[in-house]
User: What shape does this take?
Amino acid sequence: MYTGNLIFLVLVLLSWVGLYKCFQKTNIAAWKAFIPVYNYYEAFKLVEKPKWWFVLMIVPGVNIIMLGVLAFNLARYFGKRKTTDLVLASFVPYLYIVYLGFDSNIKFVGVDDIRGKEIPFIKNWVDPLIFAVVAASVIRTFFLEAFTIPTSSLEKSLLVGDFLFVSKFSYGAKVPQTPLAFPFAHHTMPFTTGTKSYLEWIKLPHWRLPGLGTPKNNDIVVFNYPDGDTVAVGAQSTSYYNLVREYGYRAMQDPNFAPAYNGNKPVGKIIARPIDKREFYVKRCVAIGGDKLQIKDGQVYINDKISPTPPHAQHFYTVEVKGQVADGILSSYFGSYDFNNNSYSMNNAALDKYDIYVDESGLVDIKQDTLIFRFNMPVDVMQTIKNFSGVVSVTIKNDSAGYYDKQIFPHNPRYPWNNDNFGPITLPKKDATIHVDASNICLYDRVIQVYDGNKLEVKNGKIFINDKETDTYTFKQDYYFMMGDNRHNSADSRSWGFVPYDHVVGKPLFIWFSMKDADKNPVSGKGIVSSLFKNSKEGKYRWNRFFTYVTDDGISKSYFPYFVGIVIIWVGYSQYRKRKDKKSAA
Assistant: This one.
């Protein structure tokens, strides 16, 4: 058991002893203080709070807040109403309840003497605020959590700038493993870059509530980033393991090391993160436990059958365009090149028109009268551009079979895989047993050691798991293979391998707001105010995505007009009622 867990258990038992002594000072049978959960039912009834509040005492994380609420109210009912007492009761409730119970000078007095004289600040602000935090924490932990799409890995299914709610009950909500945390902060305190928002004094095992199912092929899934167990605080957007592969372990131990991979910024301190505090990622689940997966020339095969490509999937294409040369400038519809200054410029308006991100485009070569661009785009946009006059050819850019990319899982030249040619590989499935040896252990070493929590050693070509020589291994949980629809611009399972079931968070449910990033759409992505009067194509706001449901193929129709209509009707009806009430009063 973790030391912090043991200390927490001792504090809980001490608080029960304190409740025992407190109950002795009232008309409550003291033995009830030692009945788990029921003791809090009696305690909240004593301080005249809703009896169902005791249910919140079994919710990890929330129960710590609720004990502070209980101790705060017990202090008032036992006559300890000074600010110092109320603050101590709120922040050290376990010990303060013991103090209330064992101090013979403290008597139960109730609050009849202060009824009608409550401090307005406590009644009107503190109590509602605490309850709002508790209610929001319960909803955020077990039902729905707000999420923003930060990267373009799922373009054009989910877009950069989509604000959505993630359903945690779809796959069963996870009980927080680090319940001591700052409310509503994920892993970093607000307005800081590296201050942890949680404490690891208490660590709970992985436990999940019943859900509506498990991830299936083609589901869009939100999960904790598996590679995020170790993080360089100064390079949180970059995989620590990629940095190690690129620059070496020793270099990464120097907090002042500033690699080009990180924009020449220092990597800073190296920290570890528990599962529930790792970064949120969202990808498409292309394979589940037990599936055989292979990618050949960019096409995904599941169990030797072609897996349907998502309708909005993107790929990088090489586009060769005939241009016109005038005054040393070779120009085309998509951009131009200045031979005099050896510089080129993109036609951002043309890219914006077809929603091709500027930061995923560029000039790759020039000929006498031809410009060769690279664009990341879905098939339908590619077909449109292919038919333009002046376009000579459009060719998909795939890595060839046999090309070894060291940033691609399993990062071993024995398996020369890349983004477009990967596998075959069979995904680990709970209770399935596989043969392991020195040749394939690199595929499963992280699964065995990190995710399933075993000791693994390879000695003289032999495999030792938990100090026992073996040539087989049985998996403890299901694993998934997650990929982005933006197939050539997505860090996914091709980079870091399998996603364990205990990392699965939920499923995107509902987009309530969406706006473009000015760095990606420099023309239509500007104008916060002026865009209020523009349509989704010409302005910053994607009105057609407001109030839409997320589906496996994209999004549903927008319910935003209905929402606006309901608001107008409600406001109109409210004004009508006010006028009617004024007339009645007159």
